[in-house]
Design a protein that fits this description.
Blueprint lengths: L2 H14 L4 H8 L3 H8 L7 H11 L3 H6 L16 E4 L6 E4 L6 E2 L2 E2 L6 E2 L7 E6 L2 E6 L9 E7 L4 E5 L7 E5 L5 E6 L3 E5 L8 E2 L1
Protein name: Helix-turn-helix domain-containing protein
Pfam families: HTH_3
Organism: Paenibacillus oleatilyticus
Length: about 200
């Protein structure tokens, strides 16, 4: 660890939270002299204190150790760049519109990479009902193998629909032309379908 970088980051984050050295020290049950020592680069936090320190300052422990946050480029607002993440332990689903580090249940999650839906098991049937799309997926919906979510993404919006085991894999949502449909299978991953267009009856 570079103690100067780590100390500088601690100082910056502490001030962002409008905390004094004593405020931070009291929360960690240590002396404010220890906080002062860190911030002046005269020493680094003990490994046993890093977890609590990162929680209080609201920063990833890895970033705290490097002393750098390295912010992403500004989000340009194109929802089509959205990324999906799913926890293999609890099934929690998360999204981001830019580069990020996401963890759940103690695991660092990897971005789900979409695959083209080429096999029958992941094909969808699309019907138009009034101004809505009615989507059906002929897919097993058991607890260990089911469609967990369906997402429809256009340039400026995300329509996210959660599905659960033991129910039918079907849903209905308003037509938004020019978007892309994604389905997530708990066993085989994320599938990307062709754009839905008026008059479509079956899409792969």
């Amino acid at each position: 660890m570079d103690c100067n970088k780590v100390g500088g980051l601690i100082l910056r984050l502490r001030k962002e939270k409008d905390m004094t050295q004593k405020d931070l020290a009291d929360l960690m049950n240590i002396s404010d002299k220890t906080i002062s020592k860190w911030e002046r680069g005269l020493g680094c936090p003990d490994v046993s204190l890093l977890g609590e320190l990162s929680k209080i300052l609201g920063v990833n422990m890895e970033k705290l150790l490097t002393g750098e946050l390295n912010p992403n480029e500004q989000d340009r607002g194109n929802m089509k760049q959205i990324k999906f993440y799913a926890c293999p332990s609890c099934g929690n689903v998360m999204t981001s519109t830019g580069a990020t580090s996401i963890s759940c249940c103690g695991r660092l999650l990897k971005e789900l990479l979409p695959m083209p839906a080429e096999n029958d098991e992941h094909k969808i049937t699309v019907e138009e009902i009034e101004d809505d799309y009615y989507i059906t997926i002929q897919h097993e919906m058991s607890r260990d193998h089911h469609i967990s979510f369906v997402a429809y993404i256009s340039y400026d919006r995300l329509l996210f629909m959660k599905l659960y085991p033991e129910q039918n894999a079907e849903l209905r949502f308003p037509q938004m032309h020019g978007g892309t449909l994604y389905t997530y299978c708990t066993r085989h991953g994320l599938w990307k379908h062709e754009k839905l267009r008026k008059g479509t009856r079956r899409v792969t």
